[in-house]
Amino acid sequence: MGVTPLRMQHSSLQVQDSAPQNRYDVEKIFAKGTEYPIKTGTESGPESHNDEVIRECAQDYKHAVHFAYGNWIAVDRKIVKPNSVKKGQVWVASNKEVVGKMHHRVFATLTFTHADPRVGRIAQAACHYPTKGHKPSDPNWDINRRYSLRIEQWMKSAGRGQALAFANGDFNMLDNTNKEDWSFGRDFTSMADELKAWQNTGHGPIDGFCSYDHDGRVKAKRFNVLDDKEFNLFTDHYLCRGVWEITHLKGKS
């Protein structure tokens, strides 16, 4: 049975950067990312100066795009079956519950039917855990644990049947530990965990890609982090790129 590569990249942007800096980063992410049709990122709210340029680039590069509280998803329409895109969001926590100057915790979701009928339905999320929550004694630990539960619940629904579910993001937690991992032991696994290829994404291994554990057709193929020497950006996070191998649906050709 054949396989199709599903390439994606994630960019944790920086809200404090100036409008010209954000424009530089976003334009470069799209221009140099044509081989990665699924793009996700964070810190793209109106206060960041980059939501407008993301929309511009999405239009210029013919991507479907969706935002939710700073998280964003863009998918190249070359891999999208026409009229199959659905956009949504999942609520996690109110800003009043989160320690630190932050907005509501809500992650963006975008689902579509792949243009290759052998791949099927794809569900993609873009997530951003709050800081100060990477160990049990931290004030936002329970928020992050709840965030992982919401991801699992969404994946279970969006990835049911033959559909496939993925979650990318800035998880603000180290990914190379056990109990203090992004998933909190839930039914999703990071690409770096699967490949045992943890890398510093700017502040340790805190950014990346996850697949739903019950999607038997999904296999991690490659995970790369491009630091400032390889892909210079103003944001304080490095660009992440990953490739999944999707086993073709039975009976599809």
Give an overview in words.
By secondary structure, the chain is an alpha+beta fold. The protein has a single domain, classed as Endonuclease/exonuclease/phosphatase (Deoxyribonuclease I, Chain A). The chain is 18% helix and 34% strand. The strands form 2 sheets. It has a 6-stranded mixed β-sheet. Strands 5-6-7-8-10-9 form a 6-stranded mixed β-sheet. Helix 1 links the parallel strand 1 and strand 2. Helix 1 runs parallel beside helix 2. It is globular and about 50 Å long. The N and C termini lie close together (10 Å).
What is the element layout, followed by pairings?
Blueprint: E1 3-12, H1 19-31, E2 38-42, H2 51-60, E3 63-68, E4 71-76, E5 86-93, E6 105-113, E7 121-128, H3 141-158, E8 164-170, E9 188-190, H4 191-195, E10 207-212, E11 218-226, E12 239-247
Parallel strand pairs: 1-2, 7-8
Antiparallel strand pairs: 1-12, 2-4, 3-4, 5-6, 6-7, 8-10, 9-10, 11-12
Helix pairs in contact: 1-2
Q: Count structural domains.
A: 1
Rg to the nearest angstrom? 17 Å
Number of helices: 4
| Percent of residues in beta strands | 25-35%
Secondary-structure-derived class = alpha+beta
**How many strands, what sense, and barrel or not for the largest sheet?**
6 strands, mixed
Distance between the termini: 10 Å
CATH class: Alpha Beta
Stretches where pLDDT is under 50 for at least 5 consecutive residues are none
Strand order of the largest sheet: 3-4-2-1-12-11
CATH superfamily: Endonuclease/exonuclease/phosphatase
Helix-strand topology string? EHEHEEEEEHEEHEEE
Task: Give the strand tally.
Answer: 12
**Would you tell me the overall average pLDDT?**
93
CATH architecture: 4-Layer Sandwich
